[in-house]
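User: I'll paste a sequence; please echo it back and then give the predicted structure.

Assistant: Echoing your sequence first, then the prediction.
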Amino acid sequence: MNSSYGCLYIVPTPIGNLKDITLRAIEILRSVDLIACEDTRTAGKLLKLLGLPKKPLLSYYDHNEEEKSEFILTKLKEGIDLALISEAGTPLISDPGYKLVLKCITEGVRVVPLPGATAFIPALVASGLPVNQFKFFGFPPKKKGLKKFIESIKAEVATIVLYVSSHQVIKFLCELSNHMEMERKICIAREITKLNEEFIRGTLGEIITFVNSKSAILKGEFVLIIEGKGSKQCL
């Protein structure tokens, strides 16, 4: 590591409940010279809610990640400390940042990750499904490749963890039913840390019946936890 370079801090931000910000994260956001973020408006609101001073904000998202990574690396080499945040949760987890971190490691820039908020860990530990072995797959393909994706995970013995958007969840569950046993245990975690946080647990068949019912509320952010093949764990 080059001691004259600045430091890249990977800073998780709340996914819902503002109290989930850590004291260390607040300290870093207060002290850095520049904050790279997916949405400058969201980041500005977060700083205001936390009572932090305004900071220079740099837009950093999927479509400009390559270009902005080079710019950020230049700033870090000039000795500027920088925090990377996503719109919510931990950067790089189904969010941009991997290219930047890799460039920093390659160029000898110090990377400091902070622990903090992410949706899939709370969803997993409260799912009632085994946590000794699990695999996180991020977002499944929306259209092309969806069937192939499900075929690739159906024989997985570890607990399967996915992010599924609200407008995709019914389609995804129906596609699961075409490839997996209807007795496979499922947990849908909705709106983790937020006011309407909810866990829907049951077999694949029971979950499909529920989400197709009039009582189902399919709004917000979803984490889908699927029992691994052959698991003896019961909900």
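Residues 111 and 229 are 37 Å apart (CA to CA). The radius of gyration is 20 Å.
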